[in-house]
Task: inverse folding
């Protein structure tokens, strides 16, 4: 009887050892084939305004959707964070919205704090579950930031359309729409071209801190168009412009004699008057062409275009108040032969000779900004000669201007022999075909009976990653 009991005890010990080994094999197999717990969270990242953006323009507006593995039991202020290309994280500014069943969280309108550089980028979202302490990550979301295209403009630095032949001239770069140029344009290069009687081009020029590049004007006189180009930069596309204005490259000779006749001979406020102006050539040069204007104190005409004979007859319906005015000024704006000049006359001048035949005539308006429209009349005799003043006028030129769940390890308890048997049977029902793998593993790791009940075998299980610290998510490849 005692021998029978000992045999039964030995048999039960052997069965127990086999069941323990089988349970350990099943636990290892479960860890290998099912690393995600049923309550794991999943994170999805997207944008509400597309995947293509312009540098410095509208920023990506991200949406993060978190599908919870289990409903949260407490009240929390929840935040989703996003990192672009592994850079600093930026988060949602509200606690997000929760679905009626409590299993879905949605965070919207998440935008980067800083301007995103030009190029293709990859963004990843993360969410830390306050109850499980587990951080889950989305798959990568890719988007593109494109270069900015700007409409540029350019003109001479002093906004002057009269340029000395062969002289240095500053070309001011600007925006056609106005406003300041981007500072990045200071590190770019420019091209400048003059097209007219000759073609002069300069390439790869750098600007000063005011976006001005300096070139040499053409040596051949005449009318030219000005073209400018920006060669592009890291964030801005190339741009170019050809000005609608014409620039006069001038020999800058001094102006010849200018004469003025008026009817009445002495101007009076509030009365009408006629002005007859004659421009005579300098020695050995042609008759001046181009434009001039008349000034009475702060009142002035728009530019008046000279005809081929260099004279003009202007009718004023009303002379403005002359209080504080002591002289008449003729401002000549220059042409391809002559420099600009200011010429002054008194308020009393010789009368317009009878039979005057002017090369141009029209109605003038002082201070209204209207251009006179001329018709031919008779020419008169010479009047008073005036002296040219300093060259100081500056005419205005107008230019055209994905889902990745978090993994964690599985664990369990060891109880009595019958509890072991029950757990083993449950494991067999759950994993099904995994039993074969467990039996195979047992056979490969068979332990002789004489090693006793303390015999054991270690099984490898994949590591678990705990909650990441600040700035360490996701783990780098070499940290895994």
Result:
């Amino acid at each position: 009887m005692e021998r029978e009991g000992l045999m039964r005890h030995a048999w039960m010990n052997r069965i127990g050892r086999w069941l323990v080994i089988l349970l350990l094999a099943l636990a290892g197999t479960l860890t290998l084939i099912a690393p995600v717990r049923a309550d794991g969270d999943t994170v999805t990242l997207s944008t509400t305004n597309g995947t293509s953006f312009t540098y410095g323009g509208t920023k990506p507006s991200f949406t993060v959707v978190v599908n919870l593995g289990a409903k949260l039991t407490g009240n929390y202020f929840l935040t989703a964070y996003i990192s672009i290309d592994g850079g600093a994280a930026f988060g949602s500014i509200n606690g997000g919205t929760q679905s009626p069943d409590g299993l879905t969280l949605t965070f919207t309108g998440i935008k980067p704090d800083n301007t995103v550089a030009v190029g293709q980028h990859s963004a990843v979202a993360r969410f830390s579950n306050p109850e499980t302490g587990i951080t889950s990550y989305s798959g990568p979301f890719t988007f593109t930031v494109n270069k900015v295209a700007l409409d540029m403009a350019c003109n001479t630095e002093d906004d002057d359309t009269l340029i000395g032949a062969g002289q240095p001239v500053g070309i001011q770069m600007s925006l056609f729409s106005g406003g300041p140029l981007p500072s990045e344009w200071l590190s770019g290069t420019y091209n400048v071209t003059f097209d007219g009687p000759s073609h002069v081009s300069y390439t790869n020029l750098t600007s000063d801190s005011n976006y001005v590049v300096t070139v040499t004007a053409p040596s051949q006189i005449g009318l030219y168009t000005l073209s400018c180009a920006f060669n592009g930069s890291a964030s801005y596309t190339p741009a170019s412009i050809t000005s609608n204005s014409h620039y006069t490259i001038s020999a800058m000779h001094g102006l010849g004699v200018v004469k003025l006749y008026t009817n009445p001979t002495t101007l009076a406020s509030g009365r009408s008057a006629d002005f007859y102006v004659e421009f005579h050539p300098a020695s050995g040069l042609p008759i001046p062409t181009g434009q001039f204007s008349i000034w009475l104190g702060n009142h002035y005409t728009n530019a008046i275009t000279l005809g081929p004979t260099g004279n003009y007859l202007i009718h004023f319906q009303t002379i403005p108040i002359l209080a504080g005015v002591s002289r008449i000024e003729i401002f000549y704006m220059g042409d391809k032969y002559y420099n600009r000049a200011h010429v002054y006359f008194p308020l009393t001048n010789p009368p317009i000779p009878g039979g005057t035949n002017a090369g141009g005539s029209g109605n003038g308006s002082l201070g209204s900004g209207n251009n006179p429209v001329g018709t031919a009349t008779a020419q008169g005799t010479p009047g008073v000669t005036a002296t040219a003043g300093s060259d100081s006028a500056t005419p205005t030129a107008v230019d055209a201007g994905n889902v990745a769940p978090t993994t964690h390890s599985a664990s369990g308890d060891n109880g009595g022999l019958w509890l072991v048997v029950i757990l083993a049977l449950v494991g067999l029902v759950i994993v099904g075909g995994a039993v074969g793998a467990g039996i195979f593993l047992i056979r490969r790791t068979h332990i002789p009976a004489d090693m006793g009940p303390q015999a054991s075998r270690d099984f490898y299980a994949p590591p678990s990653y705990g909650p990441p610290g600040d700035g360490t998510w996701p783990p780098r490849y070499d940290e895994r």
Observations:
- The mean pLDDT is 77.
